[in-house]
Write a structure and sequence with these properties.
Blueprint lengths: L2 H15 L3 E2 H8 L3 H17 L4 E6 L2 E6 L4 H8 L9 H13 L4 H8 L4 H9 L3 E6 L7 E5 L1 H6 L60
Antiparallel strand pairs: 1-3, 2-3, 4-5
Helix pairs in contact: 1-3, 5-6, 5-7
Length: about 220
């Protein structure tokens, strides 16, 4: 296949999918070696960004997906009458930051660092598909392990977890502050960082959570 033909084929597959597609699947579908497919993906990504098109080709680890250009988010919402999702509360951002940097980790570890029960917050993050269960820790009680998802990478405009800012001192409180310089920040347009309404006292220190969440 010629270079332009490869780009067109990759473009067609990603457009038809509407979901992230792994590079391996593209290679298998096109019967091409990975370097050729990755070169086509990179060229397409540069083209859409440089030419200021209305769509972008974004990378999330080894998967790629088309999305609308962020600068046109408001216009897209108005045209499609899409209701903007509620943004995350400060407690949710704190829990998400801990999981992002220390994954895979347990809810008990999140509780330990935050100093409060995080059962409601963890449920919120699971419902938003920002975190997911990824097994159980092999200790008595076998608590659930959690990690971030591709939706997390997409929401924070990250290609991979390697793009997370480095932590200078895990003991400093401002590491959990998404507004602190050099720490994990919101997406460019702040799509998921507004306070959510939550049950009164759900994040109060010492308040017990759902017993099933402790398992």
């Amino acid at each position: 296949m010629e270079r332009k033909e490869i780009e067109s084929a990759v473009e067609a597959i990603l457009f038809a999918s509407g979901e992230p597609v792994h590079v391996k699947r593209l290679c298998e579908a096109l019967e091409l070696a990975r370097p050729a497919v990755e070169r086509a993906l990179k060229d397409l990504s540069d083209y859409y960004a440089f030419d200021q098109r209305g769509i972008r080709l974004v990378q999330m680890e080894d998967s790629w997906q088309f999305c609308s250009a962020p600068e046109f988010a408001d216009a897209v919402h108005r045209a499609l009458e899409v209701r903007k999702p509620s943004k995350l509360s400060q407690p949710a951002l704190e829990a998400l930051t801990i999981i992002a940097y220390y994954q895979p980790t347990t809810r008990a570890y999140v509780d330990q660092i935050r100093g409060v029960d995080s059962s409601y917050t963890m449920s919120l993050l699971l419902n938003r598909d920002l975190i997911e269960e990824c097994g159980r820790l092999q200790v008595p009680g076998r608590p659930r392990l959690y990690r971030t998802t591709k939706q997390f990478l997409r929401a924070f405009h990250l290609k991979s977890l390697d793009d997370l800012p480095a932590l200078t001192d895990p003991g400093e409180e401002d590491l959990l502050d998404p507004e602190a310089d050099g720490q994990m920040r919101l997406g460019e347009h702040g799509e998921i960082v507004e306070d959510l309404e939550r049950p009164e006292g759900s994040e109060s220190a010492g308040e017990p959570g759902n017993p099933e969440d402790r398992a």
